[in-house]
Amino acid sequence: MKASVRPYAFSVVGVACALAIWQVLAEAKIAGNALPPATTVFSTLATILGTGTFWSSLGATIGIALLALALAAVAGVAIGLLVGSFESVKYATLAVLEFLKPVPPIVILPLAVLVLGPTAEMSLFLVVFGCLLPIVMQTVDGVQGTDPVARDTARSYGMGEGEILARVVLPSAMPYIGTAMRVAAPAALVVTVVAGLLGGGPGLGQNIYQAQAAGDYASLYGLVIVLGVLGLLFQGVTRLAERRVLHWHESYREAVPR
Amino acid sequence: MRNWVIGIAAPVLLLVAWWFLSANSTDPFFPPLETIIVRFRELWLFEHFQSDVLLSLGNLFLGFAIAAIAGIALGFATALVAPVRWMMDPLIHFLRGIPPVALVPIFISLIGFGTQMRVTSIALAALFPTMIATVDGIRSVSSDLMDVAKVYRLTRKERVLDVLLPAATPQIFSGLQVSLQVAFIVMIASEMLGSSQGIGAMTLLAQQSFMTADMWAGILLLGVIGFLVNILFSLLRRKVLSWYIGSRRLARAS
Q1: CATH of the domain at B85
Q2: Can you give the CATH number for the domain in which A176 is found?
Q3: Residue numbers in A near B92 (CB within 8 A)
Q4: pLDDT for A115-125, tens place per residue?
Q5: Nearest C-alpha in A relative to B199
Q6: Is B11 contained in some domain?
Q7: Cβ-Cβ contacts under 8 Å, B86 against chain A
Q8: Which residues of B touch A18 (CB under 8 A)?
Q9: In this structure, how many other beta carbons lie within 10 angstroms of the beta carbon of residue B91?
Q10: How far apart are CA B58 and CA B61, in angstroms?
């Protein structure tokens, strides 16, 4: 019992130390006004949490991230099934996909802002662009990792191609897609913030930009703290969702208690 | 054979289509590919090569190198000393939840707009993936391996450098790959947020002054850099981890 409490005690000490160091450094004015004390930041944060603009920004950020994630998931799985099912399509798209894969959405941000302006559509487009490729690639891997015996069995039971795709190939690709979604969900949040910060799209990214431009450092730190918490929530919720959706798969199955 | 023909023909066809479809384009957003390539040569080869391209790449590599070394070192410290791990764990997870680019405004307000700020932003943002992967890598080293090391009475230094480090290297490299991606993104972001030098700054400036061909040239260059950096890293990984890749292949073949 005692041993299991100790890690938490150390965690509390660690967080307390970090906050204390922050407070002392800020009180000593090592960075002038650019580093506000922790107490100021948290009281500013409390004020921000009471305003309607904050909640509508938060809603915009979460809404854009989730909508784009859903669009990217549907399109990505569809494209992935297509690319994974036909050898010729796979080879035709291989070079393009491999080239685009390491290119982050921030690279095409200037183009998106130019064509769509600082709008929610622009953010949406960038997030879909950023999340689409990983989902496509993983789906392709999943389709190609389908057990050929299961596929042949389905065929000998007289299933049509469409039925095999829906009932054999897609389920066996699901763990791959689940992994892709778990990586894509936090990334969607990050790209939404980037689109707001650098491209002026609606949401918390834009608020951070405004706080920095206005020299409102306490709000700047407060908003970054909000983003940290939001990021953790996104990671936690997607992990949970992945478990729920894929509970039937062997790598997620819990051992049956005897 | 047929597949490889398709594989090479498809992207070539795509580029040819882009060239001809955009040839007489008067759309201000989508200038002819020819104009883009001409601007690409004028801008990057080599007028702004030293002042902007080398500057950006220098920041990228310096920041990434700092992140890699510090990430691995901190990862080892965190994984090997339990109290440190307990103290650091919530902080690391919280900092990891913050989008790396959101840290850039904070560094601008703390350090200003100079090169120092950019390298610091890149290094700090890229630190976490490597550090977390290192901790995971060390913690997943099999206890059999550690027991054998103990039976052979290896010293602590030998155990860390000759047993733990090689065993954790595959995971460390996955962390480094993520770090490299983050470093690249933060490099661009730190240039786009109020700076007049660097590829990212030039690209955004071109967009804001409606010099569309220049913007396309910048996007093209950034895309190529992102692609090449990734390839270089894969080559390095293959070289360093050749023993691991080989053993995996053997394990799968048997």
Answers
A1: 1.10.3720.10
A2: 1.10.3720.10
A3: none
A4: 888 888 999 99
A5: A107
A6: no
A7: 6-11, 14
A8: 91
A9: 14
A10: 5
pLDDT band, residue A252 (cuts 50/70/90): low
Q: Which contacts of B45-48 are long-range, i.e. CB under 8 A and separated by 24 or more positions?
A: B48/B202
Domain with A234, as residue range(s), is 44-245
Whether A110 is in a domain gets the answer: yes
- Using the predicted structure, report yes or no on whether residue A3 has a pLDDT greater than 60: no
Tokens of B80: 């090997």
CB contact under 8 A, B102 and A104: no
pLDDT of residue B70: 94
Tally the domains of chain B: 1
Which residue of B13, B30, B106 is the best one to mutate when testing the A interface, meaning the one whose CB has the most A CBs within 10 A?
Answer: B106
Interface ipTM: 0.81
Tokens of B50: 């030293």
pLDDT for residue A255 is more than 70: no
Quick check: is B195 in a domain? yes
Query: Over pLDDT 70: what percentage of chain A?
Result: 95
CB contact under 8 A, A193 and B230: no
A139 confidence band (pLDDT: 50, 70, 90): very high
Q: Which whole-number Å values give the CA distances from B76 to B23, B69, B82, B165, in the listed order? A: 56, 11, 11, 9
Q: Are residues A61 and A205 in contact, defined by beta-carbon separation less than 8 angstroms?
A: yes
Low-confidence ranges of chain B (pLDDT < 70): 1, 46, 194-195, 254
Task: Note whether B65 and B127 are within 8 A (CB).
Answer: no
Which residues lie below 8 Å from residue B143, measured CB to CB, with a gap of 6+? Answer: none
pLDDT band at A254 (very low <50, low <70, confident <90, very high): low
Among residues B134, B111, B131, the alpha carbon closest in space to that of B121 is found at B111
A171: closest CA of chain B, how far (Å): 24
Alpha-carbon span A47 to A45, nearest angstrom: 5
The domain tally of chain A equals 1
Percent of chain A beyond pLDDT 90?
A: 18
Is B28 contained in some domain? no
The reported pLDDT for the residue numbered A258 is 45
How far is Cα A82 from Cα B111, in angstroms, rounded to an integer?
Answer: 49
Q: Look up the domain containing B87 and give its range.
A: 35-253
> What are the angstrom distances between the C-alpha of B163 and each of A253, B68, B153, B156?
33, 20, 12, 10
Tokens of B95: 């900092």
Closest CA to B72 of B165, B180, B184: B165
Residue B110 belongs to some domain of the structure: yes
Residues B199/B71, Cβ–Cβ less than 8 Å = no
pLDDT of A40 above 80 = yes
